[in-house]
Design a protein that fits this description.
Blueprint: H1 5-12, H2 25-37, H3 41-54, H4 57-72, H5 75-84, H6 109-115, H7 121-174, H8 177-182, H9 185-218
Helix pairs in contact: 3-7, 3-9, 4-7, 7-9
Length: 219
């Protein structure tokens, strides 16, 4: 317990003197390594990998939007057609013949789309269906990944809480009676139950969030 002397000193201080910023990071890392990394390395590694995979969601959605604008809406062709068919009266050499006496040709919306350059309406609808299917599959994988990460982190945290409570219980029984006379029983039980639960929930949130956002920043 010598490695955790700073943590125990902070826990046993009165509430008015507690300051979590005074705890150095090395004892916290030792506690995390001892109760999490060494107890459930496989579960944590699998949860981190799946969490990193879930961090790709913004890039998948942005890629889907790019595919929609470039291959289905074909924004670049629309802009080219607008520039090509634009009438600029300021140009001196601008001269066009308008047939006002001939029969008026009325085209439907489908025929207008068919006459435009690029893909046909059927091809665009096919690509749109494939894009929707890919996004649906991705969302299903996201929910499966969230359930997997939740199950792994909860299982690892339960093992951590069991061993940490067991060690705190053994430590409290080994302390002299003068220590128990100095501190109230309810406060000691708070360390045994509430504090361990707070550590458990905090580590679970960090394991689910930090790898995901760190991997997204790297990508």
């Amino acid at each position: 317990m010598a490695d955790y002397r700073d943590i125990w000193r902070w826990i046993n201080e009165p509430a008015r003197d507690t300051d979590p910023r005074r705890i150095p990071p090395r004892p916290v890392w030792r506690m995390f390594s001892r109760y999490f990394l060494r107890r459930s390395p496989g579960k944590l590694a699998a949860a981190v990998v799946v969490t990193c995979f879930m961090g790709l969601t913004p890039f998948v959605l942005s890629g889907a939007i790019k595919f929609l604008s470039d291959n289905i809406l074909e924004v670049q062709l629309i802009e080219q057609q607008q520039r090509r068919g634009a009438f600029d009266p300021s140009q001196v050499q601008e001269n066009r013949q308008f047939n006002l006496t001939g029969p008026r040709v009325v085209q439907g919306l489908g025929q207008q789309h068919e006459t435009k350059p690029g893909k046909s309406v059927d091809q665009k609808l096919t690509l749109l269906a494939w894009l929707a299917a890919v996004l649906i599959v991705w969302q299903i994988l996201q929910h499966i990944g969230q359930f997997f990460v939740f199950e792994r982190t909860v299982a690892a945290s339960q093992v951590q809480a069991y061993h940490m409570r067991q060690q705190i219980h053994d430590k409290l029984n080994a302390l002299p009676l003068s220590y128990h006379d100095q501190y109230a029983t309810g406060r000691l039980l708070t360390h045994l139950f509430s504090d361990v639960q707070s550590i458990q929930m905090t580590v679970c949130l960090l394991l689910r969030g930090v790898p995901q956002f760190a991997f997204a920043v790297v990508v």
